[in-house]
Design brief:
alpha+beta, Alpha-Beta Plaits, 2 domains, four-stranded antiparallel beta sheet
Length: about 400
Amino acid sequence: MKTPGAEQAPILHLRSGMPVLRELIDVITMKSDRPMRRLVAYYAIVAVVVAILAYFFPGEIARISAKGLGDVPEGPTVLTDALSSSPTASVSFGPGSLFDVAVTTVLILIGALILMLPVTWVYMSARPSGGQHNQNVVQTLIILPLVVAGIVFIVQNSLALAFSLAGVVGAVRFRTTLRDSRDLVYIFLSIVVGFAAGVQSLAVGAVISIVFNFVLVVTWHYDYGRNMLMPTAAAQWSRPLEALASPTGDHQIPDRDLVLSLTPDKAAALADRFSRVSKRVGKKRKKPRFDSILTVTCDDVPDAQRRVEEVLARMTKRWSLDEIVTNTGKPCEIYYLTRLKKSIPRDVLLTAIHENANGVIATADLETSGEVDREKEKREEKKEKNDGVKV
């Protein structure tokens, strides 16, 4: 079974296309939000348009739909022509006139774009509950088939151009890591559609993309392949969320959406850090050992650490170094667990740190717990009442 709200995602992305196409799909499907119906409506519209064009322009449609399937030369003529000093005319490919070349190029690019639009809709919609799609991948799925189709259309049966292309591609290094392995499948599909368009066999690319879209929507809709022995998404987060529960015991997690948006590794790391700090701060209904957290940003950690600890030794009851976070290209962060002396206000401590920093420390901030703030407010109210009684 799908999680609540997961089936509504496809309609949002399918409606983000061209207004005219969206209205046509709404009319055919009677504004249905079922992704299967909307895909059928889209392909029905495309089929009608192609049928009309094929009736009036049969030669052009036949040239881009399945021309490349019958143009592969028999025998080693390509290699023979490439190695001979005077190539034969047996390898003639593509239209003869410049106008025909331009028309063919435009048609195969438009065909590749039409085939890839529903693929991008499926990619953005058929995601796991809470999963976010990558905008860069979406744009790549649109652009990559056009580039591949152009390259294949230029190279075609020329062995010399093929070797030249291999040399150019070999000189370029690609270092792109995809977060989801399924994104790689979409990239391969876009390459297949680009190849089909480049060899003027859009019919093959259309069949492959249509089957791909419907298979993916069906597997997504029925949550095919989920291991029933594995816990659900909510159960997978139960352990870190329990560690982040409020100290009152009602297990109300603050900013739950933020925690659920984290990856399991980051959520577990956050829970471990929370548990570690909670143990050092103190248990529930007991006077905490530390009541505030001092955050310092700097570039020189050893020097800043020495200067801050000099001030903490004078103005706090106790303090403890909690963590040092180093950031590449950014100031480092130092975290201290502290408990101020009653005679030392927060501003006095921060002023002393800045005066002793000598330009080494960029910023310093002290965050106190809610319990400490409430206790201070109660003390101030009692003090005001006592002063009023004395007057």
